[in-house]
Specification:
By secondary structure, the chain is α/β, with parallel strands linked by helices. The chain is built from 30 helices and 18 strands. It folds into five domains: 195 residues, 3-Layer(aba) Sandwich (Rossmann fold), CATH 3.40.50; 144 residues, Rossmann fold; 98 residues, Orthogonal Bundle (Arc Repressor Mutant, subunit A), CATH 1.10.10; 74 residues, DNA polymerase, domain 1; 69 residues. Helix 18 crosses helix 20, helix 28 crosses helix 30 and helix 29 crosses helix 30. The longest helix is centred in the C-terminal third of the chain and has 26 residues. The structure holds adenosine-5'-diphosphate and zinc ion. Zinc ion (ZN) binds next to helix 15 and helix 16.
Length: 679
């Protein structure tokens, strides 16, 4: 049996396992029944793909999404693994090829949509081909409570029993209810080995902002990330269209996506998002499970998600390749009202609604958190964590104030008006604003009238929003959203507890959006050249760019600048097969020895006298890549550095140090000065 860790590097090109993967791979390879709960992007697929290569027989993979299956099959084939899918999206030739590979005993992984299990022939087929393992992706689809319920998933349990083989189930959904349902339905109640894995996604930056010109907030966030692939989630279909238009008007390439669109149009957007670099999709939550793009660099919520689980799942689509990714979630009092009424108006039984309020509360607690967001988020999922240094509250601690007194004033205004009014009217009372409505009800005579003049209207809105966020008050749907006090507020009203509130930061003076980059300025030109190369390969192979290499792999190439095929092989994500196919091509980009189209920096110089100098510098640099004696550590200069050197009017060692830094100037300086002198 081939060693798993050896295949990890030779086939998949990864130097090591991600946290948790190894134990799961071992258990699955040994043939234990396994339920693994891992966050999106945690690397679940490897946990059945690798055992599939270590075990005898075919591994059947049940997955709910055709696009996702096709992607994985393509990825495996690129890595030199025989895999195929039987889905309704297949062409006849594709299906024939799968059967042929099965008959010849070549196929290692067979992907299948759950609908297939309903057809009588499937069980016979699976008996015939010698299945050794069943892997179930997105196992929470078996849960009738979930939004992703797939009735055909209920057949998987029978299939397992009929074939008598081990089953490994994977999901990113954590809650205990769903877990119990999976055990009951897939494993017939016999507890499998459960792996519950670290929910932290340390590369994702977390941030929330209260709404304050939400369209502008989203446009600013996107502007700072121009050219990077991102998703904007909206609460309504209409908003996806207007916001996509606003982003396009602002110079981005954006598409909208929602469940009301024709299936064909949705597929077009999905396809473009997967294949193009830098597209923004503005979507409702309908844009979800099928999104398997590992290099989504940011996710923004234009409206508050419905629960902490939904939030976690949606932001989790960013940065699955492990490279830095960013998120921004906007929220306001209207969002809170909307989400509460959605739960109250649902047809679910009362316990379920209470649980849903709890999940929303957890999200609101996160939105109004006073300290590290990640600590707050992970503690909800049962993980503990120190302050993370990668969230907005770690970047800039919240300013807090003792909100006990204003909260008590607000509660008093609510109670004295018998819990019949919304925030607008209550704020009029607190700030002593004699509106017609106030006068008509005689509320100017209340003892609370005008007691809150120390805070202006905006500040009161923030206080009410935070009170809702702390679940001290809730809108009552049977009273048209009038605010009512909850039990949680009693201790504050009775002077038994105090409460800290956030001072809503009036937006700090802006110095224009700061552009975020994935690599240092020096490596950026090389990274774009590598991306261009990737696009060329992707286009000729007709696969999404990340199937060739993920962003993370290209970033590592740009930073480490391998100068030989051996060094290229040590880059994470470069397995043997990909090294053979693409290694030379990317190496040529890095060392600059390419015969193909010139680097953009070089192209800019074409026809100018600096061009010849640039080319000469490139040659000299290649000669010195390993130092004078050819044994030094590999080193090279980016195209933009060479262009700067080529443009020097009067060069001396000092000016080279300024451009290249000490290390590069030491190696290349004297030779470059010669080139410049000759010019
Ligand atoms: P999910 O858990 O969401 O199904 P995937 O299996 O698609 O996640 O993995 C997410 C990304 O992580 C992919 O780009 C995959 O290539 C990468 N990955 C998985 N395992 C490793 C590893 N051990 N080292 C480096 N990258 C990995
Ligand atoms: Zn933090």
């Amino acid at each position: 049996m081939p060693q798993a860790s050896q295949l990890l590097s030779s086939v998949f090109g990864f130097p090591s396992f991600r946290p948790g993967q190894q134990e799961i791979v071992e258990a699955v390879t040994e043939g234990q029944n396994v339920l693994a709960i891992m966050p999106t992007g945690g690397g679940k697929s490897l946990c059945f793909q690798l055992p599939a290569l270590c075990r005898d027989g075919v591994t059947v993979v049940i997955s709910p999404l055709i696009a996702l299956m096709r992607d994985q099959v393509r990825g495996l084939r690129e890595a030199g693994v025989e895999a195929g899918a039987l889905t309704s999206g297949n062409t006849e030739e594709e299906t024939d090829a799968v059967f042929q590979a099965l008959d010849q005993g070549r196929l290692r992984l067979l992907y299948m949509a759950p609908e297939r299990l309903a057809s009588g022939g499937t069980l016979n087929l699976l008996r015939r081909i010698g299945v050794g393992l069943i892997a179930v992706d997105e196992a929470h689809c078996v849960s009738q409570w979930g939004h992703d319920f797939r009735p055909d998933y209920l057949r998987i349990g029978e299939l397992r029993q009929a074939l008598g083989v081990p089953l490994a189930a994977f999901t990113a959904t954590a809650d205990a209810e769903t877990r119990d349902e999976i055990v009951a339905r897939l494993f017939d109640g016999q507890p499998p080995r459960v792996f519950l894995h670290g929910f932290d996604r340390p590369n994702i930056h977390l941030a929330f902002q209260s709404k304050d010109g939400p369209r502008r907030q989203i446009l600013e966030f996107a502007a700072a990330r121009k050219g990077q692939s991102g998703i904007v989630y909206c609460g309504t279909r209409a908003k996806t269209e207007t916001l996509a238009a606003a982003l396009n008007a602002d110079g981005h390439t954006a598409c909208h996506y929602h469940g009301g669109m024709e299936a064909e149009d949705r597929r077009i957007v999905e396809g473009r998002f997967n294949n193009d670099d830098g597209l923004i999709v503005v979507a409702t939550v309908a844009f979800g499970m099928g999104v398997d793009k590992p290099d989504i660099r940011w996710v923004a919520h234009a409206d508050l998600p419905k629960s902490i689980e939904a939030y976690y799942q949606e932001i989790g689509r960013a940065g699955r390749d492990g490279a830095p990714a960013e998120t921004l979630t906007l929220f306001g009092a209207d969002d809170i009202r909307y989400r509460r009424s959605q739960i109250d108006e649902s047809l679910a039984p009362p316990e379920r609604r209470a649980a849903d309020h709890g999940r929303l509360n957890a999200l609101l607690g996160l939105a109004e958190a006073l300290r590290c967001r990640r600590t707050t988020l992970l503690s909800y999922f049962g993980d503990s964590a120190e302050a993370c240094g990668n969230c907005d509250l770690c970047d800039r601690p919240a300013e807090v104030f003792d909100g006990t007194q204003p909260v008590r004033m607000a509660l008093s205004a609510i109670l004295r008006t018998e819990e019949y009014f919304g925030a607008g009217h209550l704020i009029d009372i607190l700030t002593g604003n004699e509106t017609d409505k106030v006068v008509a009800r005689g509320h100017q005579a209340l003892p609370t009238f005008g007691v809150g003049r120390d805070y202006d209207r905006r500040q009161w809105q923030a206080i009410f929003r935070q009170m809702m966020g702390h679940d001290l008050i809730r809108p009552d749907p049977s009273r048209h959203g009038a605010l009512r006090m909850t039990h949680a507020a009693r201790p504050i009203l009775r002077d038994e507890a105090t409460i800290e509130l956030r001072r809503d930061t009036i937006r700090a003076a802006k110095s224009g959006p700061k552009v975020k980059t994935l690599v240092s300025e020096e490596d950026a030109p090389l990274l774009s050249a590598l991306k261009a190369k990737r696009r060329a390969f992707a286009e000729s192979a007709r696969v999404p760019a990340y199937v060739i290499f993920t962003d993370r792999t290209l970033i590592e190439m740009a930073e480490r600048r391998p100068s030989s095929m051996d060094e290229m092989a040590t880059i994470s994500g470069v397995g043997a097969k990909k090294l053979e196919r693409y290694g030379e091509g990317f190496l040529a980009v890095i060392t600059g020895e390419q015969s193909g189209p010139a680097h953009p920096q070089r192209r800019k110089l074409s026809g100018r006298s600096e061009a010849a100098v640039y080319d000469r510098l490139l040659e000299v640099q290649a000669e010195l890549a390993h130092g004078d004696d050819g044994t030094g550590k590999p080193m090279s200069c980016s195209a933009s550095l060479l262009a700067k050197v080529a443009a020097l009017q009067r060069a001396d060692h000092g000016s080279l140090v300024r451009i290249l830094g000490d290390r590069r100037a030491e190696r290349f300086g004297p030779a470059f000065l010669n080139v410049l002198k000759e010019a």
